[in-house]
Amino acid sequence: MPIINATDRDGNEKLIQAETGLSLMLNLRDNGGLDIAAICGGSCSCATCHIYVDADWLEKLDPQSPDEFELVEFAQYYKENSRLSCQIEMTDALDGIRITLAPQE
User: Fold this and answer.
1) Which residue ranges make up each domain of the chain?
2) Contact at 8 Å (CB) between 47 and 73?
């Protein structure tokens, strides 16, 4: 099982054993117990699963869709490394990925 290195909103780090084939959002919430609202259930329409991806991992991800970019671009806490965790599928290639939960809006 791949591992996710996650930092919550309080700065606490957590190692999460991830299931491949599930979104990063589901792994963070269901397998890691992190506080992710995911109001839209992963349909890329709310940005409540906003995360920051460590710079070393950005190029290993599929590019953002225009819809995802539009949602994170207008988020209050947008950064260049902002992504929606519902739009990232966990694979073995992402073993060790480092992410930080964005502040809640």
Assistant:
1) 3-101
2) no
Contacts of 100 (CB under 8 A, 6+ apart): 6, 7, 51, 52, 54
75-86: buried (b, 16+ CB within 10 Å) or exposed (e) per residue? beeeeebbbbbb
Distance of CA 81 to the CA centre of its chain: 11
Alpha-carbon distance of 1 to 76, in angstroms, equals: 34
User: What is the CATH superfamily name and number for domain 3-101?
Assistant: Beta-grasp domain (3.10.20.30)
Question: What pLDDT digit, counting tens, does each position of 17-64 carry?
Answer: 999 999 999 999 999 999 999 899 899 999 999 999 999 999 999 999
What tens digit of pLDDT does each residue of 77-99 get?
999 999 999 999 999 999 999 99
